[in-house]
Amino acid sequence: MNSALLDGEPGAAIAWRDGVAITRRSFAADAGALAERLPGAGTMLNLSTDRYRFAVGLGAALLRGQSSLLPPNHLADTVARLRTRFIDAYALVEAGGDGHGLPAVEHVAGSGSASAMPSTTDDTRRAGSVDAPVVAADLVAAYVLTSGSTGDPVPHAKPWGLLVTNARAEASRLASFLGQADLTGIALVATVPPQHMYGFESSVLLAMLGGAAFDAGRPFFAADIAVALAAVPAPRMLVTTPFHLKALLDAGVDVAPLALVVCATAPLSPQLAARAETQLQAPLVEIYGCTEAGQVATRRTTAGPEWRTFDGLRLAGDGAATVVSGGHVAEPTLLADVLEVTGEQTFRLLGRANDLVNIAGKRSSIGHLNFHLNSIEGVVDGAFWLPPDKDVGDGLVPERDDAGIVRLVAFVVAPGIGRERIVAAMRERVDAAFLPRRIVHVDSLPREATGKLTAAALAGLATRMLAGAGGR
Q1: Burial 221-238 (b: 16+ CB within 10 A, else e)
Q2: Helix 24-35 and helix 120-127: axis angle, to 10°?
Q3: Are 39 and 196 spatial neighbours (Cβ–Cβ below 8 Å)?
């Protein structure tokens, strides 16, 4: 059984670069040309920073019957670990790029640039046999890798057919918020890298299979996001994270009219969602998902706390034992979050199963506490951290109260906002048991490019800031 490499009319846009459209026919031609230059066998580590070239690399690998690797980062240690698991791995890099010790294939200089776009006649000729290509549905299109407890990347296989089902379900759901059948004609700008599962699904696959066309870049700063949005035609969609969204709103830059804002990687506070809809004058939709199951559900945050699964997905169980199945989820999959299931397709998200904290017999979640911390006026960014119950080396000694209970620490980016003001504001929002014993002011938190703050990165920050200080 085969599935299409891409949907849509050959002459329709799949990407935008500097305000100029790149057609689906050109994409098929570029992917086919690159496929001819790839090794006869192997697994691709796609290091393309340009979103269009990343998509071309994905398409080329698929046409070659190969899989792509999507690790959590491209650090030298991560790539070295990948080499031990995928001994046939090679890197796809842009001109002059670093393959991190892997055999490398370079994109042809100028490929996919507006200046290199072919004429209509040449475009048709180049498409040739790769016009409307198909891919085996059972081909593992991507291995999404997460860091295991030992630090070795743990691969999650994503067959192409299931990714197609997932992308079409997402496109249909997002289009419904716009009153459309699909995303044809939508130009999207994404602040998340295409190598991240969210960026992969909600920019690259939405364009290949959902009718949208993405901006080829990856703007990070607020001013760059505004420039990117202004360079693509309406109707526009912004695909972003809570971290990038807050930075954009705080910057107060003028943004071209938006039709929809999509947000994921961490639950969004209702306050920030309402502020975003007011400032950007567009509905905001959150996506909930996980590496194991892919995208699972959406909600319009300002409409209430309840999430609704994509069509075809069903929930069973409750609490920390909730399973999702159907649709693009090949086998019933246990979700890592604590859910309050309100129906076969509806739920409320209570927090991560490994995110719950119990202090003095009272329970909360780090996510819930972070939500309130970041709702305080003047706090630019912040995160709670629960120290280990005992000294684990590196001179990091957990602070305990008079009853010997380990107390929370809060790291904040809050220029000019003192500890007393933050504690007073938190006291109005949470039980006293969860008030941080220590608040550590930092210049920034070690977030990834997606805005995600991993437990390992936060623990590393805590070690650097608190080691030998006894928490004081």
Answers
A1: ebeebbbbbebbeebbbb
A2: 50
A3: no
- Determine the average pLDDT of the residues in 398-407: 55
* Burial (Cβ within 10 Å: 0-12, 13-18, ≥19) of residue 396: buried
- The answer to whether the beta carbons of residues 297 and 291 sit under 8 Å apart is no
Distance between CA atoms of residues 187 and 76, nearest Å: 34
Instruction: Report pLDDT for 429.
Output: 85
Which tens digit of pLDDT belongs to each residue from 337-380?
A: 888 899 999 998 877 766 778 776 677 778 778 888 888 888 88
d(CA 114, CA 84): 39
How far lies 451's CA from each of 95, 150, 192, 243, 266, in Å? 27, 24, 8, 5, 9
What is the layout of strands, in order, in the sheet containing 381-385?
Answer: 381-385, 409-413, 438-441
- Is 160 exposed, middle or buried, given 0-12, 13-18 or 19+ CB atoms closer than 10 A? buried
- CB proximity list for 140: less than 8 A, separation 6 or greater: 67, 157, 158, 159, 160
Q: Which of 109, 91, 89 shows the shortest CA–CA distance to 100?
A: 91
Count of beta carbons in the 10 Å neighbourhood of residue 30: 27
Which residues touch 115 (CB under 8 Å, ≥6 apart)?
none
**pLDDT grade for 336, boundaries at 50, 70 and 90:** confident
